[in-house]
Design a protein that fits this description.
This protein has 1 helix and 35 strands. The chain is about 0% helix and about 50% strand.
Length: about 425
């Protein structure tokens, strides 16, 4: 596989034969399998050529996540694990003025509601509840450090520090976090270019640790805001990661199934159109409509209504439906937007006692020759519905003896 510059993270997405296991190889757009971004979306991007995820860890930006719900909530009473490949391209510290110390790049499990709260501050260590994650702190004078961490619901912070363990750019690292409920231990193992890397100290929970409740797997780019000034650090990193595997307990409930698919439609520009989908499964069901494989902001209901539709909105529409047990994708519905036909340039003449008009027509338009002898009343005298563009002729076979006014009306059928 070609490794372009930037951070590439391979995350799991398709549910495999083993229930509760997710894998992601990025051979197609992960958004179609339930992956989403929060925060600065420019930090994460799927590369369809290399079939992996480009990631930037930039602590000068707000807390940002490339994430997918697990479909189940894991606690200290569950066994679960998280594996991914990482190939760093570059790392820089001190990118935020006044924050010259080290800061982490991270990936792991989090509680989405907690992690998206404005008061979630990773830099203090204790203001980031419900996380189980792998952290790497580049060297700022004390040695590069691998520091797996667990933070409880009430801010109990348990971690280990293993150093010096430097992630050299260009090398391929495989990282595995595995939590055992029986031993209350978070164990981290790594390889470097296929050879053992470490060892890395375990994180062991004790009776003073309360609990955590994680419901999301994520690649996390944390903000460096809120740190104590004397220890403040910052980081900017680019790398590649692939082949993520997440194993969690079997989700409870019935995954969503589609009962009625959205239907393709044609609408005239300026008009309105509604797509709808029918689905069943364990409640609550969540919906995310997409156009040409891109999420539509705020389109999170079973119906999608578009008003004042313009030609730029034409294309393929789908919806991702998810719940605690899984997700499914709808079939694509095609939206065709017809433009209002341009008024034709008309020439007219008498031929053998009939009034005939000639004009250049557009495809799929109804043209009507209309006559008036007393404005504003107009009457149809002949019409044609075109199937293709080209020259057309309409005629008034019984024109009045004295005088009349004529016009051609154009309308989409």
């Amino acid at each position: 596989m070609h490794w372009p510059t930037g951070i590439f993270i391979g995350l799991l997405t398709a549910i495999t034969a083993a229930a509760g296991t997710f894998t992601e190889s990025f051979d197609s757009d992960p958004a179609g399998r339930g992956w989403r971004t929060f925060g600065d979306t420019s930090l994460f991007g799927w590369n369809p050529t290399a079939q992996n995820l480009q990631v930037t860890w930039n602590s000068s930006r707000p807390n940002s996540y490339f994430y997918r719900p697990l479909g189940v909530t894991v606690t200290r009473t569950n066994d679960f694990s998280f594996t991914f490949d990482l190939r760093l391209n570059d790392l820089a510290l001190g990118v935020t003025p006044g924050k010259t110390e080290t800061f982490q790049i991270a990936a792991g499990f989090l509680n989405f509601a907690a992690a998206t709260n404005v008061n979630f501050i990773r830099g203090t260590g204790t203001d980031s509840p419900h996380i189980v994650e792998w952290d790497y702190f580049p060297d700022s004078g004390f040695g590069a450090t691998i520091s797996p961490s667990v933070v409880s619901s009430n801010g109990n912070f348990y971690t280990s520090f293993s150093f010096p363990l430097e992630l050299t750019p260009g090398d391929l690292f495989r990282v595995t976090l595995a939590y055992s409920a029986a031993t209350q231990t978070l164990r981290t193992t790594m390889t470097q270019n296929g050879q053992p890397f470490g060892p890395i100290n375990d994180v062991v929970l004790d009776g003073n640790f309360s609990d955590f409740r994680a419901d999301t797997v994520a690649i996390t780019s944390y903000s460096d805001a809120g740190q104590p000034a004397q220890f403040a650090g910052s980081v900017l990193a680019h790398a590649t990661v692939d082949n993520l595997v997440v194993v969690v307990p079997d989700p409870l409930g019935v995954p969503p199934t589609i009962l009625s698919q959205p239907v393709s439609q044609t609408v005239t520009a300026g008009g309105s159109v509604t797509f709808s989908v029918g689905a069943a499964g364990t409640a609550p069901l969540t919906y995310q409509w997409r156009r040409e494989n891109v999420d539509l902001f705020g389109a999170t209901a079973a119906t999608l209504t578009l008003t004042n539709v313009q030609p730029i909105q034409a294309g393929s529409y789908t919806v991702v439906i998810s719940n605690v047990a899984g997700f499914t994708n709808s079939a694509a519905a095609l939206l065709v937007v017809d433009t209002v036909p341009l008024p034709p340039t008309v020439t007219g003449r008498f031929v053998g006692g009939t009034w005939r008009v000639q004009f250049t027509a557009e495809a799929r338009v109804v043209y009507r020759l209309q006559r008036s002898v007393s404005f504003p009343i107009w009457a149809d005298v002949s019409s044609v519905t075109t199937t293709g563009a080209g020259s057309q002729e309409l005629a008034d076979l019984n024109p009045p003896a004295d005088r009349a006014f004529y016009r051609v009306e154009a309308q989409r059928p």
